[in-house]
Every structure is written in C-alpha cells, then in structure tokens.
Design brief:
Two copies of one chain form a homodimer.
Chain A (H helix, E strand, L loop, with lengths): L1 E5 L3 H10 L6 E7 L15 E3 L12 E4 L7 H8 L4 E4 L7 H15 L2 E3 L8 H12 L3 E7 L2 E2 L1 H8 L4 E10 L1 H8 L8 H4 E9 L5 H9 L9 E6 L2 H7 L5 E11 L5 E11 L2 H21 L4 E3 L14 H8 L1
Parallel strand pairs in A: 1-2, 1-4, 2-3, 4-5, 5-6, 6-14, 10-11
Antiparallel strand pairs in A: 7-12, 8-9, 9-10, 12-13
C-alpha cells in the first residue's frame, strides 16, 4: 500500500515515521505547498513533490494522508483531493464536521474513491469509544476529559500577548472530578470543575509580568472559564523542560442496568501519549489501510471511523485476528 | 426489532431487562429447555416457549440471543439455530473459537442468516480494544487484567470440595503490576504476578478447615499458580456481603513511535461492572441490532465483533452519531 503525505508539519513527520512501523505500507513521498528544496524530511530518502503536481500521481498513490490544519487547510484540501485519491484527514472542528462530510462525500463519490474524515484520537478513538459505550449503556452519562497535555491553540494565544516571547500551555483534568465520575456519582460538572490550565511563559526583558498574567487569566473562551496558573520561566527552561507535545485524556460512560437500574457500570477509555502528532499519525495509518481495502472492494464516498469494520484496520488477516485477539 | 432469548439463566434475565432500555427492541419471548410453566421470568408478561418449538417462530423473531454455556450448550445450539434465525452468542472458550466459527458460518450461510459469535466483554469489547490498539501501535505489548470480580467457575470448583457448603471466589489484579504496565515498564509478568485469588468459604459443621484451605490453594490450574487467600465465613455473611456478580478488568497496550521509538504511549480500556451478566446482556443487545441491520442488507454468514461497523450498534441514525459523537 503506497501512502503519500500532503502537508508536512509535525503530523506529516509522524506519518513519515509511522509508515516504517507498518510493513504492509510504503511511503510514496511528501507533497508540500512550500518549495520542495526547502523541505527537509526526517529520512533523507523521502521524496518531496510540489503540492500542485499531486494529481499527476493519482495512479501511483493508494492513499493520500492529508496533514493540514482544520481551520483553513482541510475544508479546501480534502474535497479537492478526494476525487483523485483515497484520502484520510484529521479534521477536528467538531461543529463543522457535517458540512465537511458533505463536501468530501460529494467529491469522493464523483471520483469513485474512499475518504475517511476526522481520524485521530479526538475526533477518532474517543468518538468510537463514545459510540460503543452509548450503544451498550443507553441509560447513562458521558464524560470526556483531556490532558495532561499541551494545547497548541492556547499556547499560541499566549504568544500573541504583548511582551511574551514564548509559551507552553498544559490542559490538566481535575483529579477530584475524575474520581467522582469513576465512582458513579454522575456529577454535573462546569468547565471550571473539569480542567485546569497551567501556563509556562517566557516574558521579554522588562515586560510587565502582572499585566501579562492578568491578560492570560481573563482571556475570554481560552482561559476566563478556567482556574489558570501562570509561571514565568526562562527560554532555556522552556526549551529544556517543555519541548515535548504530550497529550491524552479519558472517555468515561457510567450507566445502569437491571430491573430497577440498581447495577452501575463504568466504561473508561484513556490515552497517555508522549507525542500527540505521532500517535495521531499512527491512527491515520491504520485507517488508511481500511480506506485502501474498502476502495479495492469497490466502495466509495465519505466515511467516518464509525463506518469502518475494525478488522479492516489490522495488518493481519481476519483468520489471524479471530484466532489471536478474540 | 423482535428479540428472543434462548436459554434462561442470569444472562437471559439480563437480556430480558436490557430490552426495556432499548426503545427500538421488543421481546418476543423466552425459549427454555425446562418445562415452560416452571420458568418464572423477571416480568410476568414475558412469554415462555419450549425450546423444541423455536423453529415454528422463525418468521416472528428478528434476532435470537442464545444464552447458553460455552462448555456444552453453545457448540450445539448456535449452529443448530443459525440456519433459521439471525443469532448472537457469547461463546467464550477462546481456543475453540475458530472451530465454533466454522460450524456457525456453515449453518448461517446455508440459511441466509447473520450470526455474530463471542459477543460480550471478553471476548467482545476487550477483543475490540486489543485489535484497535494493535492496529494503532504495531510496536508494543498487550496486557489484560481481570477483576476485581467473581469467577463462577472457580467458585464452583471450591464448592465441589468435601465439607464446603458454599463459596465465592474473587479474581483481583495485582495493583503493582498494573502500575508497572501503565508506567510503560513493559514488564514480563507471570500468572502469579498478575492476579491474586480471594475465596470466601462456608464450611460445614465440624469440617476440617485446614484441609479445605490446603485443597483450595493447591488445586491445579484453578489456584496453584496464584497467591490465594481463603476466609471462612458464615452462610449469612456470604449471602449478605457476596451475593452480587461484579466483574471487570483492564486491556492495556503500551507502545512506542517516532524515528528512534523514543515516544511512549499507553492505551487503556477498563470496565467496572456491578453485574457481569447484565452488562454482557447489554452488549448482546447492541450487537443484535447490528445483526438485524446486516441481515436486512442481505448479508449472511458468521461474523465476529471485528466485522461490525460501529455505527450499526447504535440506535441512532448515522447522521445523528456523526453530529453528536464524532
């Protein structure tokens, strides 16, 4: 199965590495909107092509993994590529998924290709766990917690404040809220009760730290609804202690069964990830395998993780997974 | 969707209750090998039919949920019913699954019906989580822990010892082993290092408790490979404190990604269940829904949880789950 990467940032690099962990896949190359000669792949033998030439290679690529951002890249890229290629993306603007789905479905159906959108861990594996748990326990309550992990968007928002040179923001689930959910208390939790935000900030020489801190903790949407802690550190400390991109979280459903609903159950799925983009890339590869197989069976159109039979994700045969994992 | 229950014990009672939690299902009735008049369903309006008459109702039942034991019942029941009905079973003798699959596949294909075998939580939801995690992290290690929960088979084994009136056995995961796995230590764990066994035993008047305890802890296969603790209690205490059938467990995969495999990831799925049979019944209903839908689409033959697109498990439409859960 020949994989190509469209868009080459952290996620694209993750896919480039993940292909080597999957013996049934090989990398055709990377497509970039930058000048190819300015792009330096992780592995020197990785070929780099101009994004505009992609359609020329429609017969050479089995699945195109689109590694763009959800805000402006993917709403254009995925529909425009889905009529020439089987495609996978990690579109994660939850509210806009139905619209994105419709655009991609139209293109993929026209081109006779398979597209799978919103693949990763949330949306992705977390979504799957929400669906399974809801199907099993129709009477219950869902909870999703994120972290401990780095939020790129929140880190960027801090960096835009005057006097800030660099910043790293961690989202942290509140342990007592997690404990209460797991105990089956069915708490109603406000935004503030579920997560705290921890910020490491590098301030410029002579910058007003009190003003920066106040601008952070009162920032609407990003921080004002949370208990936020701000630590000022040096650039050296930030580079030394906070250069990773860890993330993770918890999807929990609690519910009850039986004649009088007296028996309680807790279903929990959790991820603890050293590298958010590398893990997401690994999920993308597994779903690329499914897209390829579905395409070979003559299927077409836009799919989500909900539509994929799990066996299609595995590099092993159906007989092998039945014998070894069931 | 009309559900029927074939075999009426704890699991069958769980299905009877679970049908009421799923508005798109209704209960046709219970089929039993006992005299129907001796069977007292949870709900008085539940109809009870003789098992031998099942085939007469082949056009009245959309999915037959077979609630027999894996040792002797299911290997006969599921193949014999699968040519007349869409069927679901919870066959859990892992090593014999390929043989059971072949027998059921033959019958279901002949009858043009859909059968889904080995549905529940292990095999079932735990199997699914093993498959997803292996597909995402090809380089890693799998761990499954069970408990804290009641093992019916081990409780029965204790009851067969001379001088024992009643017994309840709990399987308990070793916390330090769980912690080591979650920390990404990739430990090699022996049977003894993963689980302990805790037994509550009611001894008869004047029975030799030292001999009973020795017979338990040295029992091959069941207890000799474990650290086993035996407590003698009264029948009243057993009935008061240990009448539930709780269970659960943990499926964990740890793995690494990246150029040099330096980034570690932990995927964990866990269940904490007040009632093992009621939860299993709830899983069976969700997969019964999928069997019915697949059958309506003209599919046939034996399937496992690996073959089922998650969207088919949900009572909601595809559009609804995409909009609300993705």
């Amino acid at each position: 199965m020949k994989i190509a990467i469209y868009g080459y940032g952290n996620l694209g690099r993750g896919v480039e590495a993940a292909v080597r962990q999957n013996p049934d896949t090989e990398l055709f190359g990377v497509f970039t909107r930058r000048s190819p000669e300015t792009v330096h792949p992780v592995f020197p033998e990785t070929r780099v092509f101009p994004a505009d030439d992609a359609a020329k290679y429609r017969d050479d690529v089995d699945v195109m993994i689109i590694c763009g951002g959800s805000a402006t890249d993917l709403p254009k890229m995925t529909p425009s590529l889905a009529s020439d290629f089987n495609v996978i993306d990690s579109f994660d603007t939850h509210a806009d998924i139905p619209r994105h789905f419709a655009a991609v479905d139209d293109a993929a159906t026209r081109g006779g290709k398979v597209a799978i959108i919103s693949v990763g861990w949330d949306p992705g594996m977390f979504s799957l766990n929400r669906l399974y748990a809801n199907a099993i326990l129709p009477e219950g309550k869902d909870y999703t917690f994120w972290g401990k992990g780095v939020s790129q968007g929140h880190s960027d928002a801090i960096r835009r404040i005057e006097g800030v040179l660099d910043a790293r923001q961690y989202t942290i689930p509140v342990q007592s809220a997690l404990d209460s959910v797991r105990a089956g208390d069915n708490p109603e939790l406000t935004t503030r009760e579920k997560h705290t935000r921890l910020c490491y900030v590098v301030a410029g020489e002579g910058a007003d730290r009190a003003r920066i801190e106040k601008e952070i903790v009162t920032m609407p949407k990003y921080f004002s609804d949370y208990d936020t802690t701000v630590h000022f550190i040096s650039q050296e400390e930030l580079d030394r202690d906070h250069k990773g991109i860890p993330h993770g979280g918890f999807v929990i459903r609690t519910g009850s069964t039986g004649v009088d609903g007296k028996n309680k159950h807790v279903i929990e799925y959790s991820l603890k990830l050293d590298s958010n983009p590398e893990f997401t890339a690994s999920v993308l590869i597994a779903f690329a395998r499914a897209a390829y197989r579905m395409s070979q069976r003559g299927e077409k159109g836009c799919k989500t993780v909900f539509d994929i039979a799990p066996v299609d994700l595995s590099a092993r045969t159906r007989e092998e997974v039945i014998a070894s994992m069931l």
